[in-house]
């Protein structure tokens, strides 16, 4: 699960998207209380940091611990540079970065990544790391995330990786129409400067991503309910923000900060009031089906979770809703980030527009809708290159050490340390990617395809990789979606969503960054965050 630290706004909408129903609550800006808290999280971090420094300084009266602490806290805003520097200095060896909460040990290279993958869940846990990021004890009404998913894990993963992915051809044609309509509506609401409409691209893409993944996870009907989707989106933000505040507190302040956060996070009533009765109804239907009765067929996460659940695990409506929310939590921000940076890259490298549009127009998009895991190979390569050059997260495969052990190279791992991979630095390493600082949009595309385009002068041959590959691939040099049996099961939905958004933008609009020199991202811990104020001019293309 990616761990974004983002306070994306939810745009007001008087939408007319096909099938889109306005809820009782119109979509508006975040509640002021959370908005102001999210905006001041860095300020709170600074105050807590000073308290930390003063406590340690008073006790030790030595400068060194203070310097160490300053360095650890600088990780919050300087994480990517610290990881990248560590990677360059380590020269292929294991290295560590000290952060305010934990020591992060980084491994890279085929052997070390295999070693990480092969550790049992009793030693290394993805879920213990997620627990630290989400602090469910305080943010999710005491929900307990276990260190290991146990027997239900395989079913859960199959529900997302196989059943949700297999459903994509059924939802993509509907989503194409819905995405096109929403783009036009949101663009129409943009500010006009010097007679030209400007669009805040990232907030727009957060909405489109929510619509797309929400349709797959909750089903068309719920995803068309504005009030439901607003609640679902805001819940992610509240939990991540609240968890961060608790995480930044010194141990002695944690229970007080935890109580404050619990009090602050309001139960997303519309979300749960709609989800629980559906989950209960599905449990009743399962019961009836087991007695041989005919029951309706559903295509959403609730039905897939029940379909793949091991028979010996007891399922309650509460547990089903928690599982659905676990999938929803990891699905939005990284997906919207990659779609957004791809459009920025197209503004900066417009020579790719013609071949990408040609791929869409000559049947590529229709083929993608029929076969989402294979279609649009040129766009797939472009998206992979964009995600390589502007990484969404500098670390991947977060695992918390729950039982101490030593790596084959002798590095000792203590309880509470994290073991991760420096995914972004590997992506920028010449040992894996020739001319790594050069943007080559078709670097990963099948060679014969690029050669045919080069022959007619549409693209240059560029810096090809020895072998074509896809953005959803998982290997020790491409860790965007993690590694091994815990690798992201939602990556097929994420990529289909990104392709659908990017294809519908570039087929229908020309695009230009209003200020190509202005910063477009910032970072929190290891994660890159899109700035919300980056404006793009989308000009409808003549047909
Ligand atoms: C570009 C977008 C995304 C990125 C970069 C991403 C990345 C990741 C990563 C790095 C992991 C951990 C893998 C590991 O530690 O080895 C992960 C896990 C996970 N992701 Fe994603 N993800 C994305 C989108 C999605 C979407 C759209 C969904 C939902 C459909 C999703 C559902 C999950 C789930 C459920 C897990 C936990 C897997 C498990 O419990 O076994 N992700 N993701």
TrEMBL record:
InterPro entries: Cyt_P450, Cyt_P450_E_grp-IV, Cyt_P450_sf
Cofactor field: heme
A cellular component annotation (GO) from this entry: membrane
Binding site for heme: 488
Chain spans, region Disordered: 1-22
SUPFAM superfamilies named among the record's database cross-references: Cytochrome P450
Subcellular compartments: Membrane
Keywords: Heme, Iron, Membrane, Metal-binding, Monooxygenase, Oxidoreductase, Transmembrane, Transmembrane helix
Pfam family, one: p450
One Gene Ontology term of the molecular function aspect: heme binding
Family: Belongs to the cytochrome P450 family.
Protein name, as recorded: Cytochrome P450
Organism, scientific name: Lasiosphaeria ovina
Highest classification ranks of the organism: Eukaryota, Fungi, Dikarya, Ascomycota, Pezizomycotina
């Amino acid at each position: 699960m990616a761990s974004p630290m983002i306070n994306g706004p939810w745009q007001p909408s008087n939408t007319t998207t096909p099938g889109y129903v306005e809820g009782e609550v119109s979509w508006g800006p975040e509640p002021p209380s959370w908005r102001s808290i999210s905006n001041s999280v860095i300020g709170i971090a600074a105050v807590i940091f000073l308290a930390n420094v003063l406590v340690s300084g008073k006790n030790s009266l030595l400068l060194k611990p203070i310097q160490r602490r300053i360095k650890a806290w600088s990780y919050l805003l300087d994480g990517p540079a610290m990881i990248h520097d560590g990677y360059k200095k380590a020269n292929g060896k294991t290295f560590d970065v000290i952060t305010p909460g934990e020591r992060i040990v980084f491994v890279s290279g085929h052997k070390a990544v295999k070693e990480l993958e092969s550790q049992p869940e009793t030693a290394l846990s993805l879920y213990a790391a997620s627990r630290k990021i989400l602090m469910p004890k305080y943010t999710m009404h005491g929900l307990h995330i276990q260190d290991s998913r146990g027997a239900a894990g395989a079913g859960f993963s199959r529900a997302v990786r196989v059943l949700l992915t297999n459903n994509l051809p059924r939802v993509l044609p509907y989503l194409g129409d819905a995405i096109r309509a929403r783009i036009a509506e949101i663009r129409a609401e943009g500010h006009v400067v010097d007679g030209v409409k400007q669009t805040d691209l990232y907030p727009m893409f957060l909405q489109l991503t929510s619509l797309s993944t929400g349709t797959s996870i909750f089903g068309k009907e719920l995803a068309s309910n504005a009030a439901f989707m607003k609640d679902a989106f805001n819940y992610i933000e509240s939990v991540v923000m609240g968890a961060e505040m608790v995480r930044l507190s010194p141990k002695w302040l944690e229970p007080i900060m935890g109580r404050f956060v619990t009090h602050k996070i309001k139960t997303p009533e519309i979300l749960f009031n709609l989800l629980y009765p559906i989950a209960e109804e599905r449990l009743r239907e399962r019961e009836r089906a087991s007695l041989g009765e005919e029951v309706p067929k559903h295509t959403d996460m609730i039905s897939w979770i029940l379909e793949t659940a091991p028979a010996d695990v007891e399922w309650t409506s509460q547990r089903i809703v928690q599982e659905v929310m676990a999938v929803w939590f990891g699905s939005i921000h990284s997906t919207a980030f990659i779609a957004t940076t791809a459009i920025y890259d197209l503004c900066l490298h417009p020579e790719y527009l013609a071949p990408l549009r040609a791929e869409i127009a000559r049947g590529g998009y229709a083929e993608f809708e029929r076969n989402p895991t294979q279609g649009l190979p040129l766009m797939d390569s472009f998206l992979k290159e964009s995600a390589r050059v502007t990484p969404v997260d500098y670390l991947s495969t977060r695992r918390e050490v729950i039982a101490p052990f030593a790596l084959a190279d002798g590095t000792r791992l203590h309880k509470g340390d994290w073991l991760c991979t420096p995914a972004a630095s590997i992506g920028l390493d010449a040992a894996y990617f020739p001319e790594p600082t050069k943007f080559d949009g078709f670097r990963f595309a099948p060679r014969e395809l690029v050669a045919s385009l080069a022959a007619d002068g549409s693209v240059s041959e560029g810096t090809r990789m020895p072998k074509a590959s896809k953005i959803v691939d998982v290997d020790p040099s491409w860790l965007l979606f993690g590694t091994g049996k815990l690798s992201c099961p939602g990556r097929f939905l994420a990529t289909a969503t990104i392709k659908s958004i990017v294809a519908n933008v570039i087929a229908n609009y020309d695009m230009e960054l209003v200020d190509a020199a202005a910063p477009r991202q910032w970072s929190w811990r290891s994660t890159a965050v899109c700035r919300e104020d980056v404006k793009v001019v989308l000009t409808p293309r003549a047909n």
